[in-house]
Amino acid sequence: MNARNFGEGAGERNVLGEPLEPCSTSPLTGFFRSGYCAAGPDGVARHLVCIEASEAFLAYSKGAGNDLSTPRPEWGFPGLKAGDRWCLLAERWAQALEAGQAPRVFMHSTNEAVLDGLSLADLKAHARDLN
Prior knowledge:
This protein is an alpha+beta fold. It has a single domain (3-125), classed as Protein of unknown function DUF2237 (Phenylalanyl-tRNA Synthetase, Chain B, domain 1, 2-Layer Sandwich). Helix content is 22%, strand content 10%. The protein contains four helices and three strands. A three-stranded antiparallel sheet has the order 2-1-3. The radius of gyration is 14 Å and the shape is globular. The mean pLDDT is 92.
């Protein structure tokens, strides 16, 4: 497996047990900036929950010390706005859930590795892409 493939989630699965789907290419997201919430071959990446940012979540996140709305060009980060999809740290999603501020989740693009610390029921309760 080459670097391009693992950054694209090759062989990785989503929380539904299916092949991992891309989260976003605009803005380009993921630890590997491939558009996928991929963990990589060694499972080192933790930006694994594909979320839809909302104004409320962005304000909460900024207040919690994780400013996702301010552009940081030196890091290649455009800053998020409501409606953007983004690979969020599983721990940050859990923190937002506990505070009652969890953003909506794209289940098909959320890596199954998050199930080590997050419950499938909680993720489903915030699902954006399930009927």
